[in-house]
């Protein structure tokens, strides 16, 4: 596949965060781009407004005429999340088209670039966005494929003129094994996606394979304590790591820290976003961009102006009466990082949390972890499990999690009941959290708390 020959691109599952980034990339190159997804979202609306046609019915008669037969200038991309009985998927398959996974195309695009790839079961979206922003802000002008909407750019893809590319490397379905980076960051290797891997050991093995694919002379940067044999380690408040954050403190609601490694010390870095976990992400990002000779002053300036990623510790309402934060966390360790940071920032406030579990398998596999971490909040509203690609599993539901929690102030509500509860109770500190469609509550909750 020669990407330089491509003139037409069809994406099956175009509304996904990674797929929409590829759609925008090929549209930017001047290709005819269209695709299918099962539901209309704000993201697919944005694609439509940018001139990328999207359909929402799995019907082959809606596929444009120009995609009727295989051709060397035509590229068909699919996401592994698309059901294998999809009519459109099978149309292209049976017509003799070569179908490419999103990750394969990302591998082809990044092949000739100096690639910084960020992997991890959590932390990768914010860290890759930080790396891209530091490079962009310091004049390095990279391209980037991100797993979220970077608030500084209101996009999940950046088009740069340099030969540097920043890529979020996704471990789901072993997708990141299509990448051969010059610099790789691994932020975490907690058990996840056990529906794919079976157990933690196989997930760990996959991360080790990813680390082994770094180009000759390249660099691995990873969080200290991960089961990796080589590379530069980073940590918080641990001088035995190759790079670490020290003197972490909060002043007027902003996080500050000192970056220290063997060659360099950058004092009093101000973070544009909140959270101790984001200080840790910043240490990893700094260690990576130093490989491209970015100056200490440029790093400080960029991190102060970094506005984060949509749905990653995102402030929705911030008034004297109400604080409302929305976060994508859907794994116990992500929830722990998010809730701990909120409690450090607002120690005197009662934390009300609305949580939507994501996937039956994840809820089953980490039920005890979810129950423990969610018991850290002061009041919990639990929504039903968002199934995504899965069918129900007997006995696995939100009530199962509630029954395991030690927290007394907990209840299960549907979305409308959750909105009504917030309207009646007007919590002073609210967190919505989850990776499903809980984001549909963000705007109405913002309206409720902004007006009261």
Overview features:
452 residues; alpha/beta; Rossmann fold; UDP-N-acetylmuramoyl-L-alanine:D-glutamate ligase; Protein-Tyrosine Phosphatase, Chain A; 3 domains; 10-stranded mixed beta sheet; 6-stranded mixed beta sheet; 15 helices; 21 strands; Mur_ligase_C; ATP-binding; cell shape; UDP-N-AcMur_Ala_ligase_MurC; EC 6.3.2.8
What can you see in these coordinates?
The protein is of the alpha/beta class. It has 3 domains: 3-102, 3-Layer(aba) Sandwich (Rossmann fold); 113-305, Mur-like, catalytic domain (UDP-N-acetylmuramoyl-L-alanine:D-glutamate ligase, 3-Layer(aba) Sandwich), CATH 3.40.1190.10; 314-450, Protein-Tyrosine Phosphatase, Chain A (Alpha-Beta Complex), CATH 3.90.190. Helices cover 33% and strands 24% of the residues. The strands form 3 sheets. Strands 8-7-9-6-10-11-12-13-14-15 form a 10-stranded mixed sheet, sandwiched between helices. It has a 6-stranded mixed sheet with strand order 16-17-21-18-19-20, with helices on both faces. Helix 5 crosses helix 8, helix 10 (332-345) runs parallel beside helix 12 and helix 12 packs across helix 13. The longest helix is centred in the first third of the chain and has 14 residues, at 124-137. The protein is globular, with a radius of gyration of 22 Å. The model has no long low-confidence stretch (mean pLDDT 93). This is UDP-N-acetylmuramate--L-alanine ligase.
Can you lay out the helices and strands and say which pair or pack?
Layout: E1 8-12, H1 17-28, E2 32-36, H2 42-49, E3 53-55, E4 74-78, H3 87-94, E5 99-101, H4 102-110, E6 114-119, H5 124-137, E7 143-150, E8 155-158, E9 164-168, E10 183-186, H6 194-197, H7 200-212, E11 219-223, E12 232-236, E13 243-251, E14 254-261, E15 265-270, H8 276-289, H9 296-305, E16 314-318, E17 323-327, H10 332-345, E18 351-355, H11 360-365, H12 367-374, E19 379-382, H13 398-404, E20 410-412, H14 415-425, E21 429-433, H15 442-450
Parallel strand pairs: 1-2, 1-4, 2-3, 4-5, 6-9, 6-10, 7-9, 10-11, 11-12, 12-13, 17-21, 18-19, 18-21, 19-20
Antiparallel strand pairs: 7-8, 13-14, 14-15, 16-17
